[in-house]
Design a protein that fits this description.
Pfam families: Amidohydro_1. With 452 residues, this protein is of the alpha/beta class. It folds into 2 domains: 110 residues, Urease, subunit C, domain 1 (Roll), CATH 2.30.40; 311 residues, Metal-dependent hydrolases (TIM Barrel, Alpha-Beta Barrel). Strand 4 and strand 5 form a beta hairpin. It has an 8-stranded parallel β-sheet. A 6-stranded mixed β-sheet has the order 3-2-7-16-17-18, with no helix packed on it. It has a 4-stranded mixed β-sheet with strand order 5-4-1-6, with no helix packed on it. It has 14 helices and 18 strands.
Length: 452
């Protein structure tokens, strides 16, 4: 299928390049074929993009889809509990989820991501209750295929028993062998390293405090053997625990295992020292910044200006609904910028320009996932994009700076179109070919079976 977007009000080719005004974009098959004025393409479907701002598709680099079933519940509000009390309350709920509920939670999360311009989604699925079987990630790929979204599956896992210091119920535990064996199965079954790939797998043990050391050692061995990426949680309050156990804080501990480098990215990193951030920058280990959980946790604001100044690779993530009650990466871009402005007076380095935060959620995320075919709009790149029709009253006075619109002003409604790999997956408030009402009914029924 070919599409010709005519007379685009603005094409934000990337967060750091010039914005093109009044030009056209031709999409042929899976990729962008041309960008320029007065393009012609006999046989292409012509779309009038007058008034549209066109952006590179957003790349989400950290999430927990299964947590969508525990949103907006006062009885699970962790601002009223200690962290340990909250974990003791919520993990038993997580451990009751079934394979079918993991699927429907993925449908819910992916739908919201696409509606708000996300075209590539990474999910860190670390919850594997024994009764739910071993095909939870397979069902996530099924959900991604339903919508036509690029999906990078982070196969997580927990191996350390609660009796030895973890927070994980026994029902959610695996052995290292079980974890590694299923990671290998998923890589062999789904991982596609080719251009415009729609499916990839990332070896993602949940976090060092909830796993034996050999889980991380074997993760590195498998990932390097298979040529896939590595991911885990780092720097969200666990460093003192790891230091008490090993004599090293988390960053050093993982570096000595080999769980670092340009094929590795960590989530969060708000508690890390500047020396630890410098070590990550030197090893080219990336960070998925998740700003919205900071509001709920009440933790230190992640020092993004220092990370930027050090040249650290930065992407953005929604995080799970247990610490962020939405799956809206566009909202996260705005929150991320505003949160840094709030903490600006406590920082050595200035807050990056608003457009930089759009860059973290596009090119930055693509870089964390090793995707050179994503993150910007140019001929030969994947046709992953979204469009906002700015001919609305809420955009009056904002249209002079399209690259800063999302981080500085914020966008409070779904986008007008999302395209992935040259296919329109969301347009004019609908998922083409899908019945959203039916998807809602089935997901809601699945939710009530476990939490009513």
């Amino acid at each position: 299928m070919s599409y010709l977007l005519k007379n685009c009000a603005a094409i934000v080719t990337s967060a750091s390049d010039l914005v093109l005004a009044g030009q056209d974009m031709l999409i042929e098959g899976k990729q962008i074929a041309a960008i320029g004025p007065n393009l012609h393409a006999p046989g292409a479907e012509v779309i009038d993009a007058s008034g549209w701002f066109i952006y590179p598709g957003l790349v989400n680099t950290h999430h927990h889809f299964f947590q969508c079933f525990v949103r907006n519940r006062a009885d699970l509000d962790w601002t009223k509990l200690s962290v340990i009390e909250w974990l003791d309350l919520i993990y038993p709920i997580f451990s009751r989820l079934t394979e079918d509920q993991f699927y429907h939670a993925s449908v819910v999360a992916l739908a919201e991501l696409i509606k708000h311009g996300c075209t590539t989604a990474f999910d860190h699925q670390y919850n594997f209750p024994r009764h739910a079987g071993s095909r939870i990630v397979d069902r996530q790929f099924e959900a991604a295929d339903l919508f036509g979204i690029r999906f990078h599956a982070g196969r997580g896992g927990n191996t350390l028993p609660k009796s030895e210091g973890s927070t994980i119920p026994d029902e959610m535990l695996e052995t290292t062998d079980q974890f590694i064996t299923d990671c290998a199965r998923l890589i062999d079954s789904y991982h596609d390293a080719g251009p415009f790939s729609m499916r990839q797998v990332v070896v993602s043990p949940c976090q060092p405090v909830n796993c034996y050391k050999d889980t991380f050692v074997e993760s590195v061995r498998l990932a390097r053997d298979k040529g896939v990426f590595l991911h885990t949680h780092v720097g969200e309050g666990e460093s003192p625990v790891i230091e008490a156990r090993t004599g090293m804080r988390t960053v050093q501990y993982l570096e000595e295992i080999g769980f670092s480098g340009p094929d590795t990215f960590y989530a969060h990193c708000w508690e890390l020292t500047h020396a630890e951030l410098a070590r990550m920058a030197a090893s080219k280990t990336g960070v998925s910044h998740c700003p919205e959980p900071v509001y709920l946790v009440g933790a230190e604001v992640t020092d993004i200006p220092a990370m930027q100044a050090m040249g650290l690779r930065i992407g953005m993530g929604c995080d799970g609904a247990a610490s962020n009650d939405n799956s809206n990466l566009m909202h996260t871009i705005h929150s991320g910028y505003m949160l840094q402005c709030l903490a600006a007076n406590t920082r050595k380095h200035p807050v990056p320009e608003p457009s930089a935060f759009l860059g973290y959620a596009t090119q930055g995320g693509a870089d964390l996932l090793g995707r050179k075919d994503l993150g910007r709009l140019a001929p030969g790149m994947a046709a992953d994009l979204f469009a906002i029709d700015t001919r609305r009253l809420e955009y009056v006075g904002t249209r002079h700076d399209p690259a800063s619109l999302i981080p500085k002003v914020g966008v409070g409604r779904p986008v007008d179109m999302t395209m992935i790999n040259g296919r329109i997956v969301w347009r004019d408030g609908q998922f083409p070919g899908l019945d959203e009402g039916d998807l809602f009914t089935r997901a809601e029924a699945s939710f009530h079976r476990i939490l009513s």
